[in-house]
Design goal:
alpha/beta; Malonyl-Coenzyme A Acyl Carrier Protein, domain 2; Alpha-Beta Plaits; six-stranded mixed sheet; 14 helices
């Protein structure tokens, strides 16, 4: 039996090539019923659309619940328990994936987690605040590149902030003016075949001070959620662990609606703490897709885990005994489902 850490992705994980990929499950049915009661497109309906459309599938008011449904569908498929293939030792997420992690770890009921993600997403409907830019900090071999220009931009450009520390990538958030200045200042780089820096479509400046009004609104609108200590250890976007039995539900609430909204999300620290504190046999990437695989691998390389020194070494380890299991890959999915 594998000891696994579950990793929940953020809302940008549902991409064009995943149209039609949502697997039915009890959690998907619950998400469908929740959205149908609100008179909004259900995750199953969004996934079954005849064509992928940015205004439909990328817009936060739909992408968030669709992402959560994909993650929960994969969670439902895991072979857990004494006679299963895996035991969950901790749960973590990236950005919006924190909301999914709250549900998976049991810190919120499934119904309350739907309310949380739906409320936060609907705030962004026709109300995108600033934006986010993605920029690589590693080369194609996943070895660190100089970051002097990035550091200078953060020091010099008003209203520009770290948004997410994402392994070997930086996600920066800021006002439209700040991002325009940033795009002109940073030297061009590549992320695979894509030119960088590039701006994420229809994303607000999440995890920055620009979201303070959103945070204040959430504390009022979500006062009725039933927070509790998680059933399994839950690692947040600072690397802080909320532990079963001992975690203060109010502290989870205050982080989720406060610092998680307005301060940088350190996914790198989340992975580092999960590996150091719980030493899982593998990190399991819940869907949709497997977009966090590279970021997780880059953290492991930076940590020198199993003497990894680059992408080639990681690829060899993956071929022998995967430490990063993506449920989007059938051969890896079979290891834990």
């Amino acid at each position: 039996m594998k000891r696994i850490a579950l990793v929940c992705p953020g809302r940008g994980s549902y991409s064009r090539d995943l149209l039609g990929s949502l697997r039915p499950s009890p959690s998907v049915a619950a998400a469908d019923a929740f959205r149908a009661a609100l008179g909004r497109p259900t995750p199953t309906e969004l996934d079954a659309a005849p064509a992928y459309a940015s205004r439909l599938h990328v817009a936060g008011e739909n992408a968030s619940i669709l992402t959560m449904a994909g993650s929960l569908s994969d969670r439902d498929a895991l072979a857990l328990g004494p006679d299963g293939k895996a035991e969950v030792v901790c749960v973590l997420g990236n950005s919006m994936g924190w909301y999914t992690a709250l549900s998976v770890a049991g810190a919120l009921s499934q119904a309350d987690s739907f309310t949380l993600v739906e409320t936060m997403a609907q705030y962004q409907a026709d109300n995108v605040i600033g934006g986010q830019v993605l920029y690589p900090l590693v080369d194609d071999a996943w070895r660190a590149l100089p970051s002097a220009e990035l550091d200078a931009a953060l020091a010099e450009i008003p209203d520009l902030y770290w948004s997410i520390r994402l392994g070997g990538q930086a996600v920066l958030g800021g006002t439209t003016a700040a991002l325009d200045a940033l795009m002109k200042l940073l030297p061009p780089r590549k992320i695979g075949e894509r030119d960088a820096p590039f701006q994420l479509p229809l994303h607000s400046a999440f995890h920055t001070p620009l979201m303070r009004a959103t945070s204040a609104r959430a504390f009022d609108d979500l006062a009725g959620l039933g927070w509790k200590a998680p059933d399994v250890p839950l690692v947040d976007g600072r690397g802080v662990v909320f532990r079963p039995l001992h975690a203060d539900p109010a502290a989870i609430r205050d982080y989720t609606l406060g610092a998680q909204v307005t301060d940088p999300y350190n996914f790198t620290a989340s992975v580092r703490v999960a590996m150091r504190e719980y030493a899982p046999d593998a990190l399991v990437l819940l869907g949709p897709g497997g977009t966090l695989g590279g970021a997780v691998a880059q953290v492991l390389i930076a940590e020198g885990w199993r003497q990894l020194d680059g992408r080639g070494a990681f690829t060899r380890v993956q071929a022998e005994d995967p430490v990063v299991i993506s449920l989007a890959r059938p051969e890896q999915r079979a290891l834990v489902t």
